Amino acid sequence: MILILAPFWHQKEVNKMVFYVSIILILLFLIFGFLFPEQLLGATSQLFGIITNDLGWFYLATVLGILTFSLFLAFSRFGKIRLGDDDARPEYSNFSWFAMLFSAGMGIGLVFWGVAEPVFHYAQPPMGIEPSSNQSAMMAFRYTFLHWGLHPWAIYAIVGLALAYVTFRKKMPCLISSTLYPLLGEKSKGPIGHVIDILALILTVIGVATSLGMGALQVNGGLNTLFNIPNNITTQVVIIIVITIMFLISATTGLDKGIKILSNTNIIIAVLLLLFVFIFGPTVFILDTFFVSLSGYLQNLLPMSLALSPFEKDPWIGTWTIFYWAWWLSWGPFVGTFIARISKGRTVKEFVLGVIILPAIFCCIWFTVFGGTALYFEIFDGVDLVSKVTSDVTIGLFATLAHLPLGSIISVVATILIITFFVTSADSATFVIGMFSRNGDLNPDTRIKIIWGTLLSLMAIVLLFSGGLVAMRNTSIIMALPFLLIIIMMCVAIYKAFSSEENN
Length: 504
Fold this sequence. Notes:
The chain is mostly helical.
């Protein structure tokens, strides 16, 4: 490892403090997790419980504030500010831009949870609602829309907006620390800035490595359902190795080829799969469910955003909503940075609405089509999907598709979609980590991307063997707490920067 990393010590472009300190901390965490998996799981689970139980109100209130502030910026007098010079125009078409930001943001998550989450909420609803009832079915979609709709994309939008502004308009390095320059001044370039960038880099590595491991579990579940391939750790390691080779090949082709082409392909396959299930599934039921659920979601947006249960002591909100807010925050540095990188030339209004509204609508449609189809089979056709999903979340999608025409063929298409979304997310992550390592370089060195990509995969494999994926997920959520404070500072810095620009 020392021989591999040594050459970067002499590269002026590499931020040695961020690069080497991050790698050392990650390796120490990895070694500890491998040698003492039970202790790591116990410690992180305890901290995770404290955060979700005692600081849930802080997460809920702050994420709602981020959404409100984002929409305020879009429709305020600041909406006309361009992310770049006044004559700058977007580098990518609207379709490619949306495809890339969506694929990086949560593409694989939709495939993983498209069936599973509505079914889970239907069977195990919040706040005393009767399970497997009409009311629990309605609440299932409202809360799924909440978890995958406006709020998570607002987190990405704020991080991406702050980065795009300082990078393309103020000509500063594309680093998380740069976004706080309007607030901290030159201090953002010193030790404080390094700590912020190290936190962002480690959050990205841990979040993506965890998803790499969890994604391997779902691909294995699909292959087991389709081809009876053994569902075990050996198969999962092979899957990780194959996917690693694929995304490293993509990483060597650059942003305009690998990630762009894969992202466009992802969206095309996803839309075709969506249309197939919509047409050959319970179409009228899906339409009715979408409009009823969307109406309920928008009408109850504020109460659901601040929903807590101090009297019932129901752990559901902590298990789902607060967990999601922490998870999206942990992905904020990676996705926000990537969205910023591809958004040069867009106005603040165009950026915010494009990053928040369009993906949120697509997510709501996706969950209604797949989750609605699954619940229709469960409620009206007597297909027992609840027990299958609650026993093994990775097979929910495939169990649903099996009851549609050409079910086996469509399941193969879904598996391909999971893999391509997976490759795109990993490729995007190595791109962003490369940027963090090289002082915000907008086109990071291929060698450094390969090193990080390989390290990501090794981490996922080691954690699969040690059973540490849950501990790693908990760690990313724990570390999301200080990043939540950074986002609050980011909002203040954005407002200060926009106000001073207007005065000039």
